[in-house]
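worker-03 picked up job from queue 'complexes'. Input manifest follows; two sequence lines, order preserved.
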Amino acid sequence: MIKGKFIDNLPKVYGIYTGGFIGFIILMAIGEQMGMTAKAIGIAFVAFTIFIYALIGYLSRTAQADAYYVAGRQVPTVFNGMATAADWMSGASFVAMAGGIYFKGYGYMALLVGWTGGYILVATLLAPYLRKFGCYTVPDFIGTRYGGNLARLLAVIVLTVASFTYVTAQINATGTIASVALDIDFKYAVYVGLISILLCSMLGGMRAVTWTQVAQYIVLIIAYLLPIFWISNKMGAGFFPHFMLADEVARIGELEAQFGFVKNSAADLATVPKGLAGITKAHSAVNATPWAFISLALAMMMGTASLPHVMMRYFTTPSVKAARKSVGWSLFFIFLLYSSAPMLATLSKLSLIDPTLSTGIIGKSFAEVQSIDWYQNWNQANLMFISDFNGNGTLELNEFFMGGKAVVLATPEIAGLPYVISGLVAAGGMAAAMSTADGLILAIANAISHDIYYKMIDPRAETAKRLLVARILLVVIGFAGATIAAMKIQGILGSVIWAFDFAMSGLFFPLVLGVWWKRANRQGAIAGMALGLASSIWYLVWVRTGGSGFLGITQLTFGIFGAAVSFVAMVVVSLMTAEPDKATQKMVDEVRIPSGRSVTGK
Amino acid sequence: MSNATKHWEKTRSLLFITLAIWFVFSIGIFLFGAEMNEVTGPFGYPWTYWFTCQGSLGIFVILIFWFANRQEKIDEEFGFNERGDD
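worker-03 finished. Artifact:
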């Protein structure tokens, strides 16, 4: 009764929410003018937004399996698009991507193409069909389509490996932001991040995550776009940066030619703190071989179509038709941020390196740079570093180092924007990382509670007991993720890319062929998942331990190898064994028809 | 041929068309990344740079909506359209 009303009132509810958030930003801006400290503003932004998400999470609490697992299957297309965009855009997209483009230029812009192009595969190959199927989780589809507990179990394993790799990166991101904004040690900050994440999902499962994700999308998109427009206008680069930065892009090219990319000696580089990098690649020139670019884009596209936390968002739409449209809306909302990331990288880089701008630091004396407030702050946070390698007293391009995260988090300060914008960006980064972490932890906990506990161990368990198990798993997985995140094994962007590679190695072909190839059978799917995942892990270990790799497949694109093995194994084994029984074939036929009841009858 | 088979055939050809367009703008054009970047494109950006930042991304958004509409038409043609939703 209240729920139905809530769904009808969504535009109004989120309209008021957006207005309230903008009001809060203005309030903070006034506070800053009246002498509120930078630290207080940072804390206020992060604490206020987390409180709102937790409140939404609490209001969405539920005791029904349908609401907990698939938000009652009644999320309207546009709102599901926003929720998916928040679910999708993680700490990697918000905090790390502009940084990757800033440092690596064209080579990393493959991520922009890969992380959007994948949605074509989602829309055409999978989402509508899995929605018609009517399952609760992705392994639920594998388990029902192919039959048998082994296939189901393998799907859960692939899901867990990929999602868990991904989630540690997100908890790492929340920890980084919380430690900078709240000024606490990273070791404790990861747990602050984790508790905020769990507050959103614990009580209401998918329903709570859906409505907090919409709220988080609104915060993160405002936080990403506002500084870009502001800096662009302040710099006089154009009031609509996306259409007007061509001169700035060209100017960076000129400056690069003027400064040159001086290679630092290994001994000099050894003095630079771990994780920081200098600009070593051209900004807009094509500096990667076609295959390096295409293979990264391809791996990310196939990975997109295999990641369960994205796929399960389309289980929440009211119909198959709505699922398709919803993919379009998701990509539209993602496009708003992704098309802005290169603009941010451009503005950030030009602010720093152009000696004719007041914000530029290249060519200034070391003493001068060291006396800048923002330099001191970010140097203290271990995200910025300068060193006079050639001893001439002025800062050269190759003597300035920055952490990838700093490009987004520090640019407002560097460009001389008021601190309220930095606080807003911190809240946005937090929203991006939290929303993705919630989706991921939920995907893992749901798969284990639904597919392993309910379907395999105790099929007669009551709803209350199932949901209790799901919630306990949520907490356990969250803490395991936070503990590993605290060890800082791999950077944010690196871990996320690995997650895509794992997912595509194990799940892409079993999912796609499950719909598009009637002949695919249980034995084939088992071989595809097991060999795909195993070979990808083998390749990664091999390359990481000094192996040369082949065909130009690197530790960022090893999923291409895994998926190829998975495809061959699945086709060969399927053809060698008996075709699936009549009931399964009929099930596939039914999945292909968009109307009518879902295949599982729910 | 049954209704469902015909529906599936049309669905499949729509898939191939969509994937062909997808292939061109996600992989095809980047085979010529270096050559294409020499030429000035929309808003004064070099072509390859523009495609990676905006062009391909925008085309993907439009492509999904176009695909969804075409698929709905196919579903309606064979009477598989759903009623009672948005």
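worker-03 released lock.
Residues 3-77 of chain B form one domain.
DSSP finds three helices and no strands in chain B.
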